[in-house]
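Hi L.,

As promised, tRNA (guanine-N(7)-)-methyltransferase:
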Amino acid sequence: MEQLHTADEVQFRARTKSFVRRSRGLAQNLSRVLDQHGATYLVPVARADSATTIAPDTKIDWDQQFGRRAPLVVEVGSGNGEQIVAAAAAHPEQNYLSFEVWHPGVAKMISRAASAGVTNLRIVEADAAQALPLLLGPDSVSEVWTFFPDPWRKKRHHKRRLVDGEFAGAVATILAPEGCWRLATDWDDYAWQMRDTIEAEPNLVNPHRGARPDPLDPEPTRGGFAPRFPGRLLTRFEEKGLEAGRTVHDLTAIKPARKEQA
């Protein structure tokens, strides 16, 4: 008997993903961490057709999840949580939400958070490109972080890169007026693509337009890059890129304030 699929399921299956799903196998210590602390940090979501897509009718009450209302910072691709856990510990007045698909990384993030006594962090184990517009309402997020997403180095794989026009539009929608999208990459042509993408999105502004030109840029006088975000940790991942001779580019996009009606 032929199996029928809804339009939403077909859409999720056909969408080009920006990641490769890695093994869900866990060491015993990480399994114990999930057993002990998973319920505190992991947001339960109904799944669609895979372990990383969520059902299109999923709704989350974030005030209830965090037990309060506070400015929300969202990090897409948190890895093992080094950045977001440190930020949550340093800024208890803010709520932090991570989207991550690497299952061992999620467990490591929970271990970090529990060890640090962090209570203002929640984690969604799902593909952010699909989940963001479903789980977060318009104007609901103060900042979005996209630090060192997979560069998909080969040209034929560039279509898999996370930061594209569609994702920029989703970020622009969920950001509150004057909210900020912070990005960083150590892959040159991805930096140019990020710059082009945020400057092409009509609901975002690059406050560093024209700044910090790079002679390796195909448009060497164009610029558009931000100073390093002081809140971004120097992780071992970034150190490896620097040791390999790569240059880190930071970028910032701002959602403009609404114009007052005359």
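Residues 28-41 form the longest helix (14 residues).

Thanks again for sending the construct details.

K.
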